[in-house]
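Ticket #4471: structure output looks truncated?

Reporter: J.K.
Steps to reproduce: submitted the chain below (277 residues) through the standard prediction queue, then opened the result file.
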Amino acid sequence: MSDFDRNAVAGRFGKTAGREDTAVVDQGLRSYMLHIYNYMVLGLAITGLAALGIYMLSITGDVSAAAKILRGGAEIPAQLRGGANPVYLTQLGYTLFVSPLKWAVILAPLALVLVLSFGIERMRPAAAQVLFWIFAALIGISLSSIFMIYTQTSITRVFFITAASFGALSLYGYTTQRDLSGMGSFLIMGLFGVIIASLVNLWLGSSMLQFIVSVVGVLVFAGLTAWDTQRLKNEYIYGSLDGETAERSAIMGALSLYLNFINLFTLLMQLLGTREE
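Returned output as attached by the reporter:
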């Protein structure tokens, strides 16, 4: 992790960097990037635990514990899957994933991202950390529905594919000597295109459009992973990051990489996941 522009070091120290200066910056860069990855991994762990916990609380095989819905003037259990071993939604599952409250579950993470993005400079690092953990938990709640749609084997398989791909892309962004800054504007435009196409497809319900969105989305977030990694590296080298400024920057950097990972995972699930029968 010592690949960086040595001229930048001279700018930070106000002179041509010697071996001791470059070693100090190199060590600081390693520590800073490790700090970001630690935040991101802990956020993913919180998301995974929240998703699995909510899923387990949202389903039941006991019809007497199932949520009751009114249909044709009669109360019937909220069934998720039929077959020889039917699965039902509990009252919590019905509330989170079927009732109008599901929109609060979907939109709450977006609201928290906006708070972090626009208010981070006025927050103390401890407050920003708490918001990041809450955000990761809310994402976990919204993602818990994938356990109801896809088999657990395919979820595990796609997770490891995502982890391997993310690691390779982030390593490339860190080590490459190629300037990736020019990719940023194109990737952001692609991101907005994916969001707009996804919203349109909510009404169209086209499987072909969904496939195209998933493929393009994977390419966009793959590029963003490499680009964000290089951007974070350069922020440390060219910026004056210390104290609370460095801590806030690390939290926002972890948020960027976390979102890239989560979006890669969900898009790859749509492409490679095996649905429950």
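Triage note (M.O.): checked the attachment and the full token line is present. Residues 19-58 form the longest helix (40 residues).
Status: closed, working as intended.
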